[in-house]
Each structure stands twice: as structure tokens, then as C-alpha cells.
């Protein structure tokens, strides 16, 4: 479980790819100083497992489904990635509940400065915007952000200077893609409501009349 508060920007220093899977080596002395083999680590919002460690670097495996469903396959040696270690039980909950299970991919359509903030408009598949509400939470490349605007096919978020500088969102340009995870609690509620709508109710007008309604 993660919170969407990015701890470091790591640098991709090694990539091994086969037809469907990947192995990525990332340099981040800050992260590996308190990491262990088998730990979960969010890389651009994707929950991965550490399989190898040195004093400066860590290696993670990426399985075929993750390669297919996220932007991970677009990484190149020298790229920077957002990193967050799994939340400790006694840690502060600074963002929101993030699973590290990416729902889909969005595309940056515009970036504009508004006073001390940068507004980013992101084109998102309609099935994801259905899980979004204004002032709700969303995770973009692993970063917990607040939704300021939601349309049928896009979302708008605002970044303060610290977030813009300390995450890779400040480095990404128009047309580049980002990993999207919508709010976990909202997804569960929507899923439950959709299932409820499909159930056949036993309550009819005759039943209500017979019971005094």
C-alpha cells in the first residue's frame, strides 16, 4: 500500500527486455538505504518487487500484464522515474490510499502556469473518468493529486512548485503519457452500485400494497 507521496526521482541505469517482460535497474541511494529484497516499490505508480540490491541501485521485474497495461514499456536508459516505498504501519498518511495497480494510461494535453501552480490537462479514457469527481483524489505516475476539473474524457490537476520540481511530472511534456490510478474507495463504491443495479429485486407494487405501503 502506498500514499502517492513521491520520495525520490530515481534514474534508470539498466534495462533488459524480452518479448513480453522487462527487468529494470534504478539508481536511488535514498530508496535503497532502507530497502530489502522482496520489498514493494512504486515506480511511476506501478507496484513492483525488488529482486536485487546494491548500495546505490535496485532491480525490479516487470511481468507481461504490467508491460502491456502501463507506460513502463516506454522507459529508456537515462530516464527518471517517481519512486515511493510501501507505507510503514506507523507512517504519516500524507496522500491517499494508493494500491500501485494502474487502471489505465492518460496523455498530457496541456500545461499552463496559474500564479504559483501549474495546471495539467490529461486526456483519460471515459471508463476512468467515471471514477473521478472534482476535489477527489487521483494518482498520476504515482503522485497523489487533487482533481480540479473532470470531463467525460479528461481530468485537470494542479501542481504546487514543490511537486512540480520533485516529481517527473515537471519533466513531462505535451503528448507524453502517464499512468493513472483512480481513487480506490470510489472504485469499490461504484462497483458495488453497478452490481446492485443488475440484481433482480423481489420488491413489487403488489408486495408493497400487501405490506401496508
Strand order, sheet with most strands: 1-2-5-4-3-6
Largest sheet features? 6 strands, antiparallel, barrel
How does the helix and strand content classify structurally?
Answer: alpha+beta
Q: Based on DSSP secondary structure assignment, what is the total number of beta strands?
A: 12
Q: List the domain count as a whole number.
A: 2
Give start-end ranges of low-pLDDT stretches. Answer: none
**From the alpha-carbon coordinates, what is the Rg to the nearest angstrom?**
20 Å
Helix/strand order: EEHEEEHEEEHEEEHEHH
Number of helices: 6
CATH topology of the largest domain: Elongation Factor Tu (Ef-tu), domain 3
Residue share in β-strands: 35-45%
Distance between the termini: 47 Å
Global geometry: globular
Overall average pLDDT? 91
Quickly give the CATH architecture of the largest domain: Beta Barrel
Query: In CATH, what is the class of the largest domain?
Result: Mainly Beta
Helix content: 10-25%
Overview of this protein structure:
The protein is an alpha+beta fold and 213 residues long. It folds into 2 domains: 78 residues, Elongation Factor Tu (Ef-tu), domain 3, CATH 2.40.30.20; 84 residues, Elongation Factor Tu (Ef-tu), domain 3, CATH 2.40.30. It has 6 helices and 12 strands. The strands form 2 sheets. Strands 1-2-5-4-3-6 form a 6-stranded antiparallel barrel. A 6-stranded antiparallel β-barrel has the order 7-8-11-10-9-12. A hairpin with a 3-residue loop joins strand 4 and strand 5. The longest helix has 15 residues. It is globular, with a radius of gyration of 20 Å. The mean pLDDT is 91. Catalyzes the dismutation of two molecules of 6,7-dimethyl-8-ribityllumazine, resulting in the formation of riboflavin and 5-amino-6-(D-ribitylamino)uracil. Its EC number is 2.5.1.9.
Amino acid at each position: 500500500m502506498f500514499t502517492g507521496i513521491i520520495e525520490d526521482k530515481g534514474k534508470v541505469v539498466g534495462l533488459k527486455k524480452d518479448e513480453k517482460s522487462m527487468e529494470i535497474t534504478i539508481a536511488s541511494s535514498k530508496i535503497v538505504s532502507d530497502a530489502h529484497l522482496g520489498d514493494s516499490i512504486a515506480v511511476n505508480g506501478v507496484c513492483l518487487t525488488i529482486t536485487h540490491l546494491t548500495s546505490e541501485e535496485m532491480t525490479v521485474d516487470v511481468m507481461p500484464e504490467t508491460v502491456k497495461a502501463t507506460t513502463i514499456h516506454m522507459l529508456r536508459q537515462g530516464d527518471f522515474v517517481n519512486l515511493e516505498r510501501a507505507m510503514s504501519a506507523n507512517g504519516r498518511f500524507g496522500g491517499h490510499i494508493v494500491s500501485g495497480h494502474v487502471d489505465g494510461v492518460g496523455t498530457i494535453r496541456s500545461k499552463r502556469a496559474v500564479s504559483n501552480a501549474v495546471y495539467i490537462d490529461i486526456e483519460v479514457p471515459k471508463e476512468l473518468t467515471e471514477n473521478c469527481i472534482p476535489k477527489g483524489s487521483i494518482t498520476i505516475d504515482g503522485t497523489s493529486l487533487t482533481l480540479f476539473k473532470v470531463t467525460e474524457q479528461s481530468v485537470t490537476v494542479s501542481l504546487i512548485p514543490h511537486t512540480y520540481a520533485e516529481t517527473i511530472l515537471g519533466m513531462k511534456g505535451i503528448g507524453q503519457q502517464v499512468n493513472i490510478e483512480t481513487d480506490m474507495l470510489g472504485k469499490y463504491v461504484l462497483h458495488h452500485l453497478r452490481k446492485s443495479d443488475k440484481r433482480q429485486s423481489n420488491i413489487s407494487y403488489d408486495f408493497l400494497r400487501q405490506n401496508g405501503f
